[in-house]
Amino acid sequence: MTSLLIDALLLGAGATAFMDIVALVQNRLFGIPSLNYAMVGRWLGHLLGGTFIHRPIGKSRPIRGEAALGWIAHYLIGVAFAAMFLVLVGAGWLSRPALVPALVFGVMTVLVPFLVLQPGMGAGIAARKLPEPSAARLRSLFAHFSFGLGLWITGLGGMLVL
């Protein structure tokens, strides 16, 4: 169990960092905005107070430390996803990281923002209430695809260390 937690911590943090680097490059090169993690922190802060849905989250009362809370949650979710991934594919994946399972899993994780985060932040299921829902969906899908790619790349890095 300890080994799984350590592997998930390293894999999840690495994949999440890769996802963030991809978002930064997209923003710098193409002006594509990434998710404002302070709003995630705000949503989580209000969630602890019993409010799940906001209309929209930007109009909700700010939460002290929301940016830090959002970023910490972002990385903890990445670690939790990595743990789920390792449970699904087995610990043997780390000795021979395969690209396709990592990409498929990464893309599947987009269901969480589509079905939980976006509705909770007032954007509706799969961002349907946003002015450009298709663009928002593609950004989310690409972000989670990059998380999957980050799983594979981080897994390869771990294999090189072994």
Global geometry = globular
Question: What is Rg?
Answer: 16 Å
Residue share in helices?
Answer: over 70%
Mean pLDDT: 94
List how many beta strands DSSP finds. 0
Q: Stretches where pLDDT falls below 50 for ≥5 residues?
A: none
How much beta, percentage-wise? under 5%
Order of helices and strands: HHHHHH
Class based on secondary structure composition and strand pairing: mainly alpha
Number of helices: 6
Distance between the termini: 19 Å
What characterizes the major β-sheet?
Answer: none
Keywords: Membrane, Transmembrane, Transmembrane helix
Organism: Chromohalobacter sarecensis
Protein name: DUF2938 domain-containing protein
Transmembrane segments: 69-93, 99-117, 138-161
What report would you give on this structure?
It is a single chain. With 162 residues, the chain is mainly alpha-helical. The chain is 70% helix and 0% strand. Helix 2 packs across helix 3. The longest helix has 29 residues, at 2-30. It is globular. It starts with a helix and ends with a helix.
